[in-house]
Amino acid sequence: MTQLTSVLTQSSLKEYRPSLWALLLHQVPHVNITFHRIHDDSFRPESEQYLESLGIIGSVPAAWLIFTLILLLIYLLTRCCDTKNNKKRKSRPVRCCLSFFSLVCIAALGAGFWGNHILHEEANRFTEATKHMSRLIQHAQDQAKKFNDVLSHHVRGNLNTLYDGPFTDKPDFQSDGSYDEMIEHSDFILKNISNGLTAMDKVRLRLLDSEDKPITIGHIPDSVEKVETIRWPVTMCLLGLCSVFCLLLFIGAIVHSRGTLILFSVCGLFSIIVLWLLAALYIALAVAIADLCTDPNTWVEWSLKRNYNLSQEISNYYLKCTPTRTSPFESGLKEAQNAVMSINEFVKRVSSISRTIYTDGDLNPELDQLVQSSQQTINIMGELNNSLKCDQLHRLYNGALVATCDQGLFGLVVMLVSAAICAFVFTLLVWCNSHTWIYFKHKGKYVKVDDQDPYMPLSTIDRGRSSTLGPPNYQRSRTIHTPPQTPPYHGTLNGHGHANFPTKNGTMESVGPTTAPPTLHAGVGYGHIGTLNRGMGMGAQGFMNPGHGTLGRGMKPPQPGYSTYGGGGGPSGGGGGATTMTLGRRGHYASLRSARAPDNDLPLLGPNQGQYATLSKGCKTLESSDFY
């Protein structure tokens, strides 16, 4: 008890006043399911109508969550189905906005961390205050019970032992009537014991509930402590997870990562759901606490009466504790105190008289225990008076209210505002993020090849801008996959090159062993026509004359406008122009080459001088798909 008193003396607890947050939140309209205000908006958790109003208040963020999810779903469906809009967009401004608002969201989450810490600290203070209240009530009940035990067992028991033992031996001589006086005092002691027990019952029985069990509030701090043990780390984990999502978006926006932004879209939707649900829980809990903190004594009195059958007189004494208010235990305490004072006085007289009549061996140890027990009842009464005073319990009650309704409610409001702001920001981030990554293109992996690769399609040739009025300049891209070279086939010009190839019935016939011309092109490994070997036994044209474009067909005369090696483009131009290509059609690049200026020294690029090596009509023409 001394330790508890010192703790209460050192604690500086201010008088409770409803805070501004409690007054503001109490003004939130309390409506029923028909949206009509309820007649009594005070804290009444036992009322279904009041709980219904709290549910409607908490359903506002939940309804906004559903509306937000529907809007995001419609937006994402419209953006994902928009396949016609392939216009290239600049993503840097949007990515800058995403980075900025992700930092703003982290700052708002930091406020949530701070509010959660404040609420946790105030919950611990509430738990400590209620535990001290429970210990004080328990101590008063223990002292009342101990008083009855000492008075009934120790004082009455030892006195009965003396009364039935040594006091039965009446001495032979009477010295001033001392023996009769001792017996009379013993009778007064027994009478005062009965009076003291009856008076203490007036105090002890009022500290019992309707089931004759001691009143205890120890389950309140225990429940709050268990809830806080789970709530605090779970809230910290959820806020930390949302912070990680914001960092993920920040990094993805900086590094221009499509996959990271897509991952944030999923995580952002999860964060929006969690934050709005937390906001719904926080606002309902904050309004309920504000209703309680506006007038806490009314509900506490009703709860004590319902749960512990505690009279309103006792409740008002401890909850208000005005100096002019009389203690409801005053009459019983005074009667018990008068009884123990009389008992102590008569015990001292009996002890002094009996020691003159009897020896110590006859009286002890019962007489000594009687004296000690009588003194112990006085000490118990002193502690019981201090325990039942209202000032200590009232200070603890005010401390619990201040922890709940002042700083605790403020921390809850901070968490509510933080959750709502973060939910809005996450909605904006998911919208902007989905608007950003959907226009990001996949970066293909290409193999760099030679500029002179003849198998690149026409679509891969970049048309560069020319500053002159001449023909356009065509350049080949270096980042396109190159198809394999045309494999050699026996009986074709691609298989072996020779000076003379006699023909029979329109087909080529081998005369003897031939020797492939030396290969000068770095990419040719199959002895193609394009070996750049001038004048090797091919008659007047040689290998540089691409007149043998198609096997089994006669050569066509040179056409004007396609000469490559000097001599002009007419029939007298030296026969150096390109003639037929694939199956009588002009080659893939022939039309492009025709626009270029004449070049008498450089051959056409590619292994076949701009032509496709083909087979006769009796053979299959190779398509580009045959090489893949």
Which structural category do the helix and sheet elements fall into? mainly alpha
Q: What is the mean predicted local confidence, pLDDT?
A: 74
What oligomeric state best describes the polypeptide chains here? single chain
Dominant shape: elongated
Low-confidence stretches: 1-13, 442-451, 458-470, 472-481, 492-601, 614-618
List its salient traits.
single chain, 628 residues, 14 helices, 4 strands
How would you describe what is shown here?
This protein starts with a helix and ends in a 35-residue tail after the last helix. Residues 1-13, 442-451, 458-470, 472-481, 492-601 and 614-618 have low confidence and may be disordered. The chain is elongated. It is an all-alpha fold and 628 residues long. The strands form two sheets. It has a two-stranded antiparallel ribbon with strand order 1-2. It has helices at 2-10, 20-26, 48-80, 92-164, 178-204, 219-255, 258-294, 296-308, 312-320, 330-357, 360-363, 366-387, 390-437, 590-593; strands at residues 461-464, 473-476, 503-504, 507-508.
Task: Describe the structure in brief.
The protein is mostly helical and 628 residues long. It contains 14 helices and four strands. The strands form two sheets. A two-stranded antiparallel sheet has the order 1-2. A two-stranded antiparallel ribbon has the order 3-4.
